[in-house]
Amino acid sequence: MRSSIIGRAVPFCAALFASLTLAMPVPAQQQGLGDSFTGLQLNGDQPISIESNQLDVDDNKAVATFTGNVQVSQGETELRTGKLVVSYTKAQDGTAGERTGTSALPGGSSQIERLEASEKVYVKSADQVATADKASFDMKSEVVVMTGNVVLSQGQNVAEGCRLTIQMQTGLARLESTDCGNGVGGGRVRMMLTPDK
What we know:
CATH superfamily: Lipopolysaccharide (LPS) transport protein A like domain
Radius of gyration: 17 Å
Shape: globular
Strand order of the largest sheet: 4-5-8-9-7-6
Distance between the termini: 14 Å
CATH class: Mainly Beta
């Protein structure tokens, strides 16, 4: 039985943001959903590559900002965006300590709190692609939100909306109206599923 494209998007988007948090372990719930999103294979042992035209770190505000042609990749998973902002908190004792659910930033004693990708977000893993104007991941609440002309596709299957919200703890996903303020789509979620041959 084929699961919905939104159901397959949950582990895809979750794994994307997990890869951005420097290979934090994917929760057991997401591992079970991985079977329905077969193109996704994240490996905590694989290196993560982050490239951008510029990196600004403001340690006083606990923010790292990658700007200009930002490219993040791990294995087959790739993110491209114009800007990626990583908000973090420093460890109380000032030591790097052990890596926990919200992995430490490289070379420092900090924990990732929130990720914000903006300026045309493109995510690809094998044959799955997700695009949006913006995407964010709140590490504490474990909520992924993609907004603005959200398009999820796998092969010829496509889902379109204005806002995709994924609750990673429960695996619940909600794709909302395609009327993103531009009048396109008539205010309805659209989905096109192509039968298997």
